[in-house]
Amino acid sequence: MSESSHFLFLIALLPFIGALLPGLMIRAGRTACAVFTAVPTALALILLMMLAPAVMRGEVVQAEIEWLPQLGLSASFFLDGLGLLFATMILGVGLLITLYARFYLSGDDPMGQFYTYLLLFQGAMLGIVISGNILLLLIFWELTSLSSFLLIGYWKHLPEGRQGARMALAVTGAGGLAMIGGMLILGDIVGSYELVDILAAGDAIRASEWYLPALILILLGAFTKSAQFPFHFWLPHAMAAPTPVSAYLHSATMVKAGIFLMARMWPVLSGTDAWFYIVATTGLVTMVLGAVIALFKDDLKALLAFSTVSHLGLLTMLLGFGTQAAAVAAVFHIINHLTFKAALFMTAGIVDHETHTRDIKRLGGLRHLMPITFVIGTVTALSMAGIPFFNGFLSKEMMLEEASHTKWLGSYYVIPVFATLGALLSVAYSYRFIVHVFLGPERDDYPHKPHDPPFGMWAAPALLAVLVLVIGIMPVLAEAVVTVAANAVTGADLHPHLKIWHGVTPALYMSVFAIIGGGVLLAVHAPLQRFWNAAPRPEAKEIFEWLVDSVAGLSRRITDISHNGAISRYLAIFVVTSVAVGAAAFFGSGLAAPTRGLLSVPPVIAVGWFMLIVATVSVVMMHHSRFRALVLIGVIGLTISAGFVYLSAPDLALTQISVETVTIMLLLLALHFLPKSTPKESPLGLKIRDGVIAVLAGAGVAGLAYAFMLRDIGTISDFHIANSYEGGGGTNVVNVILVDFRGYDTYGEIIVLGIAGLIIYAVMHALLDGPASRRLRNVDYSQDRSRDRHPLMMVVVTRVLMPLAAMVGLYIFLRGHNEPGGGFVAGLVIAIALLMQYMASGFAWTQARQRIQYHAMIGTGVVIAGLTGIGSWLFGSPFLTSSYTYIHLPPIEEFEVATAMLFDLGVFLTVLGAVMLMLYSLSRIARYAGETVNLEPMDYDPAKTGSGDREEA
Amino acid sequence: MELIVASAIGTLTAGGVYLMLRLRTFPVILGLALLSYAVNVFIFASGRLAIDMSPILSKYGDASYTDPLPQALVLTAIVISFGMTAVLVMIGLGAFLEAETDRIDVASDEAETNETKDGAA
């Protein structure tokens, strides 16, 4: 990678970095804001110009960093003649627009936001034209859709702005989706997503049977972006944007992205009948249709918008012809259209800004009031009309020349006739722009007395108007740029000569006819417009809205059917679908023969199994009585714990048994507030339906589990067993996996658990602050209250048990790395020990003795675990690499200390904190609900005389 | 042995699914608990069943061990499913206290009024 190719990365990055500036600089004033928008643009332009000489010599500047090589996605950039032309246009016009917008935007508009969006858009657009990887190109493509959405909807208070922005996003976004498909097919055919490889594989692509789908999908993307018929309708609605946006996006850059893409892919995709008929025909239709509509628009910007549609059609048609000469004409017209159309938009913006109206019917006679604007507008409009000595004439002549000898479905007349018609209409609306706005008698009813704007506002269009004249009179000056860009498009070595006089050719006749015919058409414009307005025609916006509404309606109906608000409905749908998919997979493929035999069943285990089945069935049968169901759930959990013991999973057994305990406590606490029984309300039919679904699901899962258990598969577990002691320093493989091999997972899990605890705490507070608190206060729980709530025996026993339980917890924690145990179990055991104190002596008494906040405990745990992981960075190892050593303290056996133990401490603290916070939150509600609290540990204390003190909360 | 484990998983699943299709919060929570058991045992069983082969490395060299990986996964799953149950219980409780009913389906006319409200907004 050479020095200069680094510039490409910088050029691509500068607008995005620069996008951070305007929002900050707006505090320093509007001019500072504009200057700091211009700086990154100007820097990028300077860098680009430093690369330009090499590109003009015919070299291709490339730069690449691997990004996601597995996907074939790399951050690779690629600058050839075509890219250089577009990049220069984007950055150059970007500078002009920055200047123009500084004066155009009013004091009420948030200017910092505008410039930020503008730079974001500029970066995205620049990315498209210098991407060397089509996946990267797609990313920038979508970014232009998004950033243009922000720009079009910049005036958020205008409904037209919001609707226009939404429509543009929907249309170009949908096209972008289609294009993703097309590009993926293309990459699949070539075997690479690099532009260089794709451009070299034109023959293979055209020969592929996937050529047509890829072509259509890519063209959908290009046509929607470049507003080709029938997707042209979004562009006029996007005119609700501020005029600088229209001038930048909708004449110079974004709408040219589709043209750029067709030009970029021209060597690969063009040259076939499909290309010619799709692209050239679409372009022709768009050109004529856009011009017709433009002629009858009274809104200045709408006129220009449809004229842009028409000229984009012209470009599309030229690219569609598939000849090298047509490609040269297209490249040249891209430059010319940019110069006159951007200037025209800015002129329209000036007129709007000064007179406060864009309605042609209310304008006219501005030539003396706004002489500078008049000159700029006239020069550029004449160029748009294609009058000699203005640059629009040159490329239009080339277009007509190409059109005059192009055959369409065997006819030599179709394309020339319609091309001339398009040119004629173009002349007509260009004349109209001049005549109806600037000429004619001066009026006295302008909404605002017009005069020329300040220099800063007309400088940018004036510069473009000068370019129009310079290129128009001395086309040789543009020859080098056109040559290098056209060579990049065609992949050939062309030497086009741009000149004004080509001799007496068919194109000249067509041109003369168009110029005269356009004048005639303008003369009869008034009656024609009356006729046009009276004629019925489809309104694109209404069709679009109807389409959007019907799609939204359809999805709403589907949603209503599946999500009607009853969770049981969609759970049922979900379960049935899962079973159906599983069954389809099962019956659709064979099942290999079992490779394992059955283990024998000792009688004790059979009894346990029987208990489990009976308990499960009983839960289902007796779930209306909630307490009874809870007891049965406990039975199931304990049976499963026993099963874990038998099936060589001591860690699981320990965890299950302690989790079971806290779960039951939690549910009991909740049941304190909930109804104690479930009403029998399901009709028989519903029960049968649910029963069938449940049995199907159960049978499916049982079958799956059975099939699974009888067959061997390769696992990665042998690695864990082999390395547990050597690498992790522990003999309890399960614990080593948790804190070492898969420590990252565990880290995530304790965070989830901590979050669950905090959610519960937050919900509790929300409840207590809400209307539910009043209800809670008024509930009378005296019915189910025990006479002796804090019995002496229980208080004494739990108090004695506390240190014992704490020691067991500590023991389980310490031995966890080598024997069953560890942070999870230890946390749960300590939690149970603490909960016993709450249960025996009551909430207030225990709470008064709590030293550490549970939230803090969760946080500390997560931080300790995290720091342990980060600690390994200090030794140059990846996150959570553990190390261990052996310590020998005389009275105790030699034991090993591993950093994993510190991590386990984090797990322990988080589990303890989360479990305690959950149960604490539920108990808090109880206390809030007007329960009496005791400050003494037990209701009757034999050490004191008399009964214990009790206080009402 | 495999047969009874599989049938236990199936029964727990069936019970869990049936209870989850009920119309009140509490049975749904119970159903979820049953389903959690079923899923945990299922994942555990995917390491194949083994007796007297705890994944605790023996000091005396050669010994065969059961698959430790599913056990590690299930261990965290048990704790996480407790956290999930707790959150559900709290939300169910909150809903009951706010709405004075623990029904989980919204009456259809109520759903419609909500919809028109959304549409208007």
From TrEMBL, chain A:
<dbReference type="InterPro" id="IPR007182">
    <property type="entry name" value="MnhB"/>
</dbReference>
<feature type="transmembrane region" description="Helical">
    <location>
        <begin position="570"/>
        <end position="592"/>
    </location>
</feature>
<feature type="transmembrane region" description="Helical">
    <location>
        <begin position="507"/>
        <end position="528"/>
    </location>
</feature>
<feature type="transmembrane region" description="Helical">
    <location>
        <begin position="75"/>
        <end position="100"/>
    </location>
</feature>
<dbReference type="Pfam" id="PF04039">
    <property type="entry name" value="MnhB"/>
</dbReference>
<feature type="transmembrane region" description="Helical">
    <location>
        <begin position="895"/>
        <end position="920"/>
    </location>
</feature>
<feature type="transmembrane region" description="Helical">
    <location>
        <begin position="413"/>
        <end position="434"/>
    </location>
</feature>
<feature type="transmembrane region" description="Helical">
    <location>
        <begin position="303"/>
        <end position="321"/>
    </location>
</feature>
<feature type="transmembrane region" description="Helical">
    <location>
        <begin position="112"/>
        <end position="130"/>
    </location>
</feature>
<feature type="transmembrane region" description="Helical">
    <location>
        <begin position="6"/>
        <end position="26"/>
    </location>
</feature>
<feature type="domain" description="NADH:quinone oxidoreductase/Mrp antiporter transmembrane">
    <location>
        <begin position="131"/>
        <end position="409"/>
    </location>
</feature>
<feature type="transmembrane region" description="Helical">
    <location>
        <begin position="210"/>
        <end position="235"/>
    </location>
</feature>
<dbReference type="Pfam" id="PF00361">
    <property type="entry name" value="Proton_antipo_M"/>
</dbReference>
<feature type="domain" description="NADH-Ubiquinone oxidoreductase (complex I) chain 5 N-terminal">
    <location>
        <begin position="70"/>
        <end position="115"/>
    </location>
</feature>
<feature type="transmembrane region" description="Helical">
    <location>
        <begin position="792"/>
        <end position="814"/>
    </location>
</feature>
<feature type="transmembrane region" description="Helical">
    <location>
        <begin position="33"/>
        <end position="55"/>
    </location>
</feature>
<dbReference type="InterPro" id="IPR050616">
    <property type="entry name" value="CPA3_Na-H_Antiporter_A"/>
</dbReference>
<dbReference type="GO" id="GO:0006811">
    <property type="term" value="P:monoatomic ion transport"/>
</dbReference>
<dbReference type="InterPro" id="IPR001516">
    <property type="entry name" value="Proton_antipo_N"/>
</dbReference>
<dbReference type="InterPro" id="IPR046806">
    <property type="entry name" value="MrpA_C/MbhE"/>
</dbReference>
<keyword id="KW-0813">Transport</keyword>
<dbReference type="Pfam" id="PF13244">
    <property type="entry name" value="MbhD"/>
</dbReference>
Automatic annotation (TrEMBL), chain B:
<keyword id="KW-1133">Transmembrane helix</keyword>
<feature type="transmembrane region" description="Helical">
    <location>
        <begin position="29"/>
        <end position="51"/>
    </location>
</feature>
<comment type="similarity">
    <text>Belongs to the CPA3 antiporters (TC 2.A.63) subunit C family.</text>
</comment>
<protein>
    <submittedName>
        <fullName>Na(+)/H(+) antiporter subunit C</fullName>
    </submittedName>
</protein>
<keyword id="KW-1003">Cell membrane</keyword>
<keyword id="KW-0812">Transmembrane</keyword>
<keyword id="KW-0472">Membrane</keyword>
<feature type="transmembrane region" description="Helical">
    <location>
        <begin position="72"/>
        <end position="97"/>
    </location>
</feature>
<dbReference type="Pfam" id="PF00420">
    <property type="entry name" value="Oxidored_q2"/>
</dbReference>
<dbReference type="InterPro" id="IPR050601">
    <property type="entry name" value="CPA3_antiporter_subunitC"/>
</dbReference>
<dbReference type="GO" id="GO:0005886">
    <property type="term" value="C:plasma membrane"/>
</dbReference>
<dbReference type="InterPro" id="IPR039428">
    <property type="entry name" value="NUOK/Mnh_C1-like"/>
</dbReference>
